[in-house]
Amino acid sequence: MATTVKRAYTGFRGVDFANDASLVNLTRSPDALNVWKNYSDTQGSCIETRPGYVKIGDFTNNINGIYFYNDDAFIHAGTNLYIWSNFPNTPEEKTLLKNDMNDTRSSFVIFDEKLYIIDGKNYLVYYNNTLKKVSEDNPIIPTTTISRSPSGGGELYQDVNVIQPLRKNTFLADGTSTDFYLDAQNIEQVTEVKVNDTVTTDYTTDTTNGIVKFTTAPSKPDLDGIDNVEITFKKTVDGYNDRINKCTKIVVFDRRLFFTGNPDYPNAIFHSEINEPSYISDLSYYQDGSDESEIKAIVVGNNILWVFKEPNQQNETIFYHTSSLDETGKVYPSYQGNVSTGCYSDAINYKDDIVFLSRNGLEGISSDDINSKQLLNHRSSLVDNKLINENNFDNAMMAEWEGYLLILVNHKIYLADMRQMFSGTVGYEYEWYLWDLSEDKISYIKEYKGNLYIGSQNGLIFYFHGTNDNGKVINSYWTTPMDNFGYGNLNKTTNKRGGLAKIKTIPNGIVKVSEITNKKQEAREITQYSATGFDFGNIDFSNFSFETNNNSYIVYKIKEKKFVEISLKFYSDELDKPFGLYSAILEAFIGGYVKK
To answer: For residue 308, which of 30, 297, 299, 438 is within the disulfide window of CB 3.0 to 4.6 Å?
Structure first.
């Protein structure tokens, strides 16, 4: 009597593009697309077709940013910035706010109920239905010198504000002097003069030497030692305003805004004063490593500002900043991390796991003590063969949605699942899934209030909902590894009554099943499987059938003789017909030894 073997495929975890299909763990797939685990519906036990997406907006040009503020959507498309006031209704009620934005990916934060936007060309703020340059929104005018005598001296007080060119000096008048020397020369103009809190025009200005000449000498102050002359003047320093305008990344940390991404200062981090986004001191910046390599990303996590730089010769690639106090107040000194792997594109705080994309894939930083040696844990071994070889990998972007870490690159989304982890060579790694959104050239991704929004290169905006991709079929499938049932040197014959799959009941759902063997690959010239999966091709499955019963099971009948290994494919390739799979069983009889 022939020996019978049963194989149960269950407890599905994710894809494995790293190994030969015959070496993949039975809980993973060597070739799966457009599937995931919907934890909100299946508690993570079912593989199913991903949600589709629906078009909700058309903005003509490449989507560079999608922001949300007071339930309105701000859309940066090409060089235009729009507000979409009836979001997400269609047709969209959109108003053009600005038509000279930088045509590149922008960044935003909300701080003290105001929206701040930066794009490498503009530093903008929006509130009370008005968009302004921050430099035009009553920015802080610093008082750079106080207790100054008419002839000079005094006490340095506040730093110059790079956002705007105005400054103040305050003086102690002596009752006889008419010439008051400012703390800068070659100024552009004096904009206001006050004596004893009263505005006066009783003066002339020597802009070259920075002198205000009063017709009548201001009187001494009524209270001894209290400044009674205030002069506001304009002095523009070339490049100051562009320090921030040319930045492309902005985050909130410790009640300040931090900026980076300025190509003129590739290793610099700038920051505002506490609670004052419109005041950025000309001394409030830090240089992380050498300027031969640029900063690619900044991330806030665990009360630390992490800075990720591209690879460089000095291996100075990761820095971090924490707040401390010195004689001037709060400072954020730069510390070099003990990691030499550089950042290739983006970084994110994924559920308190600080991760970044290197040229080798996704890396995570772990350390019990920030002052000790940080360990670099690789997180993406299972998908690296595909991920790092995608076009435009250096322009990848990341987001978090439904508990997944999403990496958008080359119109595809790689999904990392922290809820399914396994021990890697060093530390733990994630399980992964892969979605393909190439048909609509998706180039931007944004999560908001539990919804996932995506933008395309031709200006379309979608959100994930439904069972098709804006009217197109979602081609979704899950394949099992090439399985020899533990008998690699013996032939097998399927028991045509031994196939059973438990499926998820989905309205209008469908599941199709196909199979492939080593024998059929040769006979039908099927593409050989490899570390990146295999192609089933246009196989004739006329010898294969399945039927359903009322218990959410399908019974499939496979007729295959004298094969060494076999793989099953569960899939849907029809419009609005998703599939869901809990488990599958296959039974076979063990035969004689394989003969050449």
So the answer is: 297
SS3 159: coil
Tokens 């562009």 belong to residue: 242
Residue 96: pLDDT over 90: yes
Closest CA to 534 of 587, 477, 489: 477
Based on its alpha-carbon atoms, the radius of gyration of the chain, rounded to whole angstroms, reads 32
Q: Whole-angstrom Cα distance, residue 466 to residue 472?
A: 11
The whole model's pTM is what? 0.91
Contact residues for 416 (Cβ-Cβ < 8 A; gap 6+): 350, 362, 379, 380, 404, 405, 406, 407, 430, 431, 432
Strand partners, 199: 194
Q: Which residues contact 164 (CB under 8 A, 6 or more apart)?
A: 135, 139, 141, 241
C-alpha 529, offset from chain centre: 33
Residue 496 binned pLDDT confidence (cut-offs 50, 70, 90): confident
**What residues pair up with 14 in beta bridges, in sequence order?**
28
Written as six digits, the tokens of 552 are 């959410």
- C-alpha dist (Å) from residue 343 to 245, 294, 323, 480, 557: 24, 10, 24, 34, 50
Residue with tokens 């508990």: 403
Q: Note the pLDDT tens digit of each residue in 249-286.
A: 999 999 999 999 999 999 999 999 999 999 999 999 99
From CA 495, how far away is CA 319, in angstroms rounded? 60
Could you tell me the two tokens for 245? 């305008």
**Structure-token pair, residue 267:** 């290793």
Pairing of strands 347-350, 353-358: antiparallel
Residue 282 · residue 288 · CB < 8 Å = no
Per-residue pLDDT, averaged over 473-494, amounts to 94
Q: Rounded distance, CA 447 to CA 428, Å?
A: 26
Ramachandran assignment for 450, one of left (phi > 0), alpha (psi -120 to 50 degrees), beta (any other): left
Q: What is the pLDDT of residues 301-319, one digit of tens each?
A: 989 999 999 998 877 899 9
The b-or-e profile of 333-372 (16+ CB within 10 A means b, else e) is eebebebebbbbbbbbebeebbbbbbeebbbbbeeeeeee
Residue whose pair of structure tokens reads 């071994």 in the numeric block: 381
CA distance linking residue 478 with residue 571, whole number of Å: 6
Per-residue pLDDT at 367 = 62
Q: How far is CA 1 from CA 4, 209, 368, 587, in A?
A: 9, 108, 59, 15
